[in-house]
TrEMBL record:
Protein name according to UniProt: Metallo-beta-lactamase domain-containing protein
PANTHER family: METALLO-BETA-LACTAMASE DOMAIN-CONTAINING PROTEIN, METALLO-BETA-LACTAMASE DOMAIN-CONTAINING PROTEIN 1
Source organism of this protein record: Diploscapter pachys
Domain of life from the UniProt record: Eukaryota
Length: 296
């Protein structure tokens, strides 16, 4: 009789049964579904070919009805209402001549947009507007960490003063998309709509103030309809042709972009004055009938 001494249980089983119990490590290229989170078509095919019954199960059938069944369907009375975007001014804008030649005194409109559960802020004003932004954000029942998108319409100083308030937001400024320490370069092409929170809020390229300026358009705003938050595209009035050299990169592009916005929206929020409605006369001046843009 042979004795086995001083070994483990696994070694005893190997000697008596003639097989190993050592676990074989899975190779790196192992592709079985539970191992890696993707679907392996080969595994599905092999599993489908396995037989789980020695004989085919019986299928019980019922005779077909002599007459087709009659299905009564009640008409749906309730229609889904379109979601809305709600706007709130976090800090108001103004513009006037300063105490020195070639100087201005101003503040910028900072706008909070609530699109369903998603919050956006458009422009951040000058640094001294910070307290207004914090106070009015709180009155809206939100904090800076609730803001998911921060839109800067043009890289001009009056829009950049409080960027650091919104460190958790995705920052979109001209040709850069920023999230925390990630910076992606990409230009928003003209005549292309880039959705943000939903189809209710989208970005539209409006070069003129700078080469890559953008406008945020919000649809289904209560009592206003479609609203453009245009920044420096409209400084303080509804003039199509007024040009301020201090905030203009290309005058021809500025006028073209203004026409495109006027023909798409019902209201415009300029950079430094209260919102104004788009009148029929303004649409006529913009020659909207010659453009392809509409409010569809």
């Amino acid at each position: 009789m042979e004795w086995v001494c001083c070994g483990t249980t696994e070694l005893l089983i190997e000697l008596l049964a003639g097989r190993t119990t050592t676990k074989i490590p899975l190779p790196d290229q192992w592709r079985y579904y539970p191992r890696n989170p993707y679907y392996d078509y080969n595994v599905v095919v092999r599993s489908a070919s396995d037989s789980y019954f020695e004989s085919k199960p019986k299928i019980v059938t019922t005779p077909a009805p002599q007459h087709p069944p009659i299905i009564h369907q009640k008409p749906r009375m309730n229609k889904l209402l379109p979601s809305v975007a709600v706007l709130q001014l976090l800090s108001g804008g103004f513009i006037q001549h300063g105490n020195f030649s070639e100087s201005l005194r101003l503040s910028s409109n900072v706008v909070l947009v609530k699109d369903g559960p998603c919050y956006l802020v458009v422009n951040t004003g000058l640094p001294y507007q910070k307290n207004d932004i914090i106070k009015n954000l709180a009155s809206a029942g939100a904090t800076s960490t609730d803001v998911q998108f921060l839109i800067i319409t043009s890289a001009l100083p009056q829009f950049l003063g409080s960027l650091n308030l919104f460190q958790s937001a995705q920052l979109i400024t001209e040709k850069h998309f920023v999230y925390r320490d990630h910076v992606l370069q990409g230009i928003i092409q003209e005549d292309v709509q880039i959705e943000t929170c939903s189809r209710n809020t989208y970005l539209f390229a409006t070069p003129g103030p700078t080469a890559n300026s953008v406008t945020l358009i919000a649809k289904n705003v209560p009592s206003m309809g479609r609203v453009a938050i245009a920044g420096a595209l409209f400084l303080h009035d509804d003039s199509i042709t007024r040009i301020d050299d201090s905030f203009t990169w290309n005058a021809a592009k500025m006028i073209e972009s203004r026409r495109k916005i006027i023909c798409q929206v019902d209201w415009i929020v300029p950079a430094h004055s209260p919102p104004f409605p788009v009148s029929t006369a303004l649409r006529h001046m913009a020659e909207c009938h010659l453009l392809k843009y509409s409010q569809s």
